[in-house]
Amino acid sequence: MSGNLGDLLEAARRRRFVGRERELTCFDDALHGRGTCRVLFVHGEGGIGKTTLLHEFAARARVAGRVPVHLDGRDIDAAPPGVAAAIRLALGDREGFPAGAVLLIDGYEQLSPVDGWLRDTLLPTLSADAVVVLAGRDPPSAPWRTDPGWGDLTVVHPLRPLGPAEGDDLLACAGVSPQVRPHLLALARGHPLTMALLADLAAAGRVPGSLADAPDLISVLLESFVREVPGEAHLTGLATCAVAWLTTEDLLRRLVGADAPAVWRWLARQPFITSGPHGLSIHDLVRDVLHAEFERRAPESFRRTRWTVYIEAVARLRAATGEDRQVHAQQLLFMLRSSPLAGTLAGLRAQGSTSVVTARPDEHEQVCAVIERFEGPASADLARAWLTVQPRQLSVVRSGGHVAGLALNLLCPSGSGLEERDPIVRAVLAHVAREAPARPGELVDISRFLSGADEHQRDRYALLAGPVSSIVEWLTHPLAWSFIITVDPGHWGPFFDYMAFARLVEVDFDGRRHVAYGIDWRRVPVDTWFDLMHERGRTGATGPPPAALLRPPPLDRARFGAAVRAALPTLHRPDRLAASPLLGTALAATASGPDVGRLRAVIEDGVARLGAEPRGDRLRAVLDRTYLRAAPSQEAAAQILDLPLSTYRRHLAKALDHLTDLLWTVEIGDVRLDDRP
């Protein structure tokens, strides 16, 4: 055997090198003088393959008869003398670069203090056929692009994750069996270091079900991704990025207060974070790693972060109008990242085709044609009729100028005879009336039509249009029930089990069986439901909601009013207030379950709000002196308020009616006291 160990090492590296064709072609062109490029700037997050690529460049340089000079910025004093000393050491104490040398600098972000010196002083002294490769986590500074000279000589290559075929080749070279590769590819998301670590685990007979099952691997990846976190606020910023689809400075302000601008700037500089028009987004693998680590190390703190992200997205969705609501709905949908649909939605996001919008009138016939093709002419006729009644309730996804996915969410009662004419809607509303009727002011949401243009209800665009449009409806209307209609229960059934939606109504129509899955939001509020979905994504549980999460059956309007009047005298007696039927209503609901303190606060807030109504000061004052700062008797209260007893009692009756009306709007979800600035 000839050669040395270094030769064997290089040969082994080259055998396992895959991908990076664009970068290799650019380097080869520079190496052989094809074109003007003499400087390649390669950047990307830790573990993305920068060092591996530099080793391949060095090997190609040697094959071409060039002398590679390989430096690592992490081992160099970031000052001109330190760089010069490192170069001399790499050249064996020889002064000056040989002609045609190839200078390869890894960890270039560590040399940012001498970036200008390297560019303006050192590199211009190299021979005209020299090639320079700078590899670091950060993109190049502006002069590399804006200087007319360097801009012509420099090509910038942001390193991306490997594609599926390249990842499969890498795992195959590492000896991973074909049966295991798809699972490891899904976990690694194209990240070379992660694939290498997973391949080592697989070789030892340990194939983790998720990254969270391999804490040692997570520690290595974290060290690779995050060099140093300046402080606790920045750590919270990373946790926020791990949860949120898009992180804004406003969202950070909710979590870290006055530190938000500094944290935002730090996050935006990280190589695994992309800054877009709506906020910051993090690389999917880094998100997976951070998510697993935060859940392992600080589960309660991480849960609070997730809840804050949820509250912010809900508040922004409710405050938004038009298409802006869809962005916030996608934020909420993304938080269910472990749901059965997460993979499909992630694939669509990668293509950029994720905009769900209100359909234009000229698209209605396209939509009805899709419905007729898959569900029949009678269904299409009903869709046309509903679109004349509720045209703004049709959401679509567009692709290539055509409707690719659609969802029509009806709100009932609609005041239309179509509720009787449409047999599916009629059957759903009959179930509601029989089991738990909608109360005054409440609506029933029915996702009546759901389809994609190519594969009907199994179409990936249907899987996008349905959930996004439904989230908007669920969070912007006072809903009693929601129903989703499917003609493909075999496919959708498991997903509805995950969602805790029950199979409630079945109707044969137009040659197909239509199945309605539904949920009573009075029993499982939307906020509770989102928390349940996250937990199910983690545990894999399905089926009906746990009994501990269910509120009591909803009070009708008369019983609710009686309960409000009975609760007011007990506001300062928590033991007695805890026995109020109102404890099972929205008035007492918190993230951790019903709370007597919350019930009292909401009632007191309602009393305060009466004062903002026209001539409401007197009503607020009467309730205040009767119940909040109660006088010994009604006579004493009247005297304090300087009112005749009869006038006081008239005002009290009116105030109780107004307060009950206000609290009822809270109960049905039409008004949210927490929304007050």
Automatic annotation (TrEMBL):
InterPro entries: AAA_16 (IPR041664), P-loop_NTPase (IPR027417). Residues 16-69 form the Orc1-like AAA ATPase domain. This is AAA family ATPase. Pfam families: AAA_16. Signal peptide: none annotated.
